[in-house]
Amino acid sequence: MKAPERESRRWLLQAQDDLQFVEWLRKEGLFFDKGCFMSQQAGEKALKACLYAIGRRHVLGHSLFEMVQELSKKDKGFLNIVNEARRLDRLYVAPRYPNGLPGGSPFQVYSADDLGEAYADVKRVCKCCADFLRQLNKP
Of 69, 124, 126, 138, which sits with the fewest C-beta atoms within 10 Å of its C-beta? Predict the structure, then answer.
């Protein structure tokens, strides 16, 4: 594995870039389904950055809730984003695939409100992760 700090930084930078894309979609009022999925992705990448930073060599899986549970053993501050992680986990499949919904297609079903809620959740997750990494890297 690459150096933990370097690998963590790569994942955090990608999470921040994904977050900017979600913010742009929200402002433009476009592609609510894709924005919801990208919110989940940004949160996942930010949490993986934290796991790499604490020395995890391989970070597999997509559940933000499970990552938050693991990270909370290292820092109880992660317990403050459990609900956000739970909500974002629901955006991993359904916004991408029609069979993830009981009817309609994701582009028809997801709304600006859904994207607004996902964006608020992922912002909190990313902030928590950035704060944790800043504290971890202090001399």
Answer: 138
